[in-house]
Amino acid sequence: MAGTVHIVGAGLAGLAAAVELAEQGRRVVVHEAAKFAGGRCRSYYDAQIGMTIDNGNHLLLSGNRSAFDFLRRVGGLDALTGTSEAEFPFADLATGERWTLRPNSGRLPWWILDSRRRVPGSRAPDYLAPISVLRASAPATVGDVMPCHGPLYDRLWRPVLLAALNTEPCDADARLAAQILRETFGAGGQACRPFIAAGGLSAAFVEPALRHLDARGADIRFGRPLRGIQLGQTRAEALEFGEARIELEPEDAVILAVPAQVAWALVPGLSVPDRFHAIVNAHFRIAPPPGQPLFLGVINGVTEWLFAYPDRLSVTISCADRLVDEPRAELAAAIWREVASLTGLAPELPRWQIVRERRATFAATPAQEARRPETRTSTANLFLAGDWTRTGLPSTIEGSIRSGLNAATALSRSADAPRQSRAAA
Length: 425
Ligand SMILES: Cc1cc2nc3c(=O)[nH]c(=O)nc-3n(C[C@H](O)[C@H](O)[C@H](O)COP(=O)(O)OP(=O)(O)OC[C@H]3O[C@@H](n4cnc5c(N)ncnc54)[C@H](O)[C@@H]3O)c2cc1C
Prior knowledge:
Layout: E1 4-8, H1 12-23, E2 27-31, E3 43-46, E4 51-54, E5 60-61, H2 65-74, E6 81-82, E7 88-92, E8 98-101, H3 131-135, H4 142-145, H5 151-165, H6 174-183, E9 194-196, H7 201-215, E10 219-221, E11 228-231, E12 236-241, E13 244-247, E14 253-256, H8 260-266, E15 276-284, E16 295-299, E17 305-309, E18 312-317, H9 328-343, E19 352-362, H10 366-369, E20 382-384, H11 397-424
Parallel strand pairs: 1-2, 1-14, 2-10, 7-16, 14-20
Antiparallel strand pairs: 3-4, 5-9, 6-9, 7-8, 11-12, 12-13, 15-18, 15-19, 16-17, 17-18
Bound molecules: flavin-adenine dinucleotide.
C-alpha cells in the first residue's frame, strides 16, 4: 500500500503512528480537531496563573520503553528530568513520617531485605503480596487476588497502582496491574527511575514530534474535526470533515487515533470503554524550596503526588471523580494547606489553577478491559489507535504510544501482504 495514510487525532497515539510511518517514507496526513497537538498530554498558557502549565502532571518511569524510544527518535529526550537511581520519596501527612523507597537497580530485589530502602514498619515478606497479581490469568480485580489493606498496601501498592491505573486498585483489572508491575518494579530499579518533563509536556513530546514530522514531509492539519467515515463493503471510502471531504484512493488507509467516545460515534458497532475517571491537578505559582524532591508521594491527604517544577509546585489527585464538582477556590486552598505543611512554605495561597480532566482515562476495571478493541477493524484499511485500544496497558503515555506503533505495524503488514502474495503467484 503506497497510498496516503490519514491519521485522525494528534494525541500521542496519532503522533507515534505518524512518526513511525513518516520514517518508513509513507505519505502521512494528520487531521487534528483542535488548534494544537498533544491531546491529553500537552502544555498551554493559562491566564489565571499567568504561566504555561501542563494539563496534568505526567510521570514516566524508565521502564516505559516505547515512550523513551519515541522521545529519542523525535529529539525530545533532553527535555526530561529524572533521577539517576530509582527513588520514591514519600510523606505521611497524618504522622509526619518521611521515607524514601529505594529499589536496587538489578532484577533480584534484594532491597526488600534492607530496612533503610523499604517503607517504615514493613517486612520483607509483605513485598511478595503482588505475586498473586502477576499470576492472575482469568479476568479478576486486584482485590480478588491480593489483600487491599495493611500498612504496605496503604503506603506503597495503593499509591503506585492508583497512579498507574487511575482506578481504585482493589476494583482494577489484575492483568493490567500485573503488566505495569512487570515492566517497572518487576524489572528492577533500572526500570523504575522516575522522570518528568520539567520544561513542559509539549516541549518534550509534542513540539519535537511536530518538527520531526515536518522534516519528513508529513502534512499536519489543525482545526479539522472528522465528522464521518464513509464505509464501503470492505474499505473506508471517504473522510468527511464538514464542508471538506477526502475521497480515499484504493491504496489509502486511515488510522483513527481519537478518544474512545469519538471513535464509537464514527465507527458503527465498535466496542469501546465507556466508563472514565477524572484526574485533578492543582498548580501553584511559586518556586519550590531548596531540596524539594522532583516529586513526592503523599499519604493520608487529598494531595497524592507533589511535583516540583523550576517555577511552580503542582499536585496530582487520581481517580478524583469526587472532586470534579467541588468549588475550585476551596479545593485550591485545601490543597495548598497540605502543600505548605509538606514544604514549609508560607500559608498564603500563591496564584493557582485547578485543572480537572473529567475523562482523563478509562476506568481500568475488568469490565472496561473487555470492551477494548483490537487495532484492526473489520474494514481492511481502517485501523485504531489510542490508549483505550487493546494494548495490555492502562491508559498511559506508554500505552498510547504503543497503540500508535501497533496501528502503524498492522497497516504496514496489511500493505505488504498483497505484495507478497503477488510475488509468490
Ligand atoms: C490529567 C492527566 C494526567 C495523566 N498522567 C499520566 C501520567 O502521569 N503518566 C502517564 O503515562 N499517563 C498519564 N496520563 C494519560 C495520558 O495522558 C494519555 O494516556 C495519553 O495522553 C492519551 O493519548 P491518546 O493519543 O491515546 O489520546 P488523546 O490525547 O485523547 O488524543 C486524541 C486526539 O484526537 C483529537 N480528536 C478528537 N476528536 C477528533 C475528531 N473528530 N477529529 C480529529 N481529531 C479529533 C483530540 O483533540 C486529541 O488531540 C494522564 C492523563 C491526564 C488527562
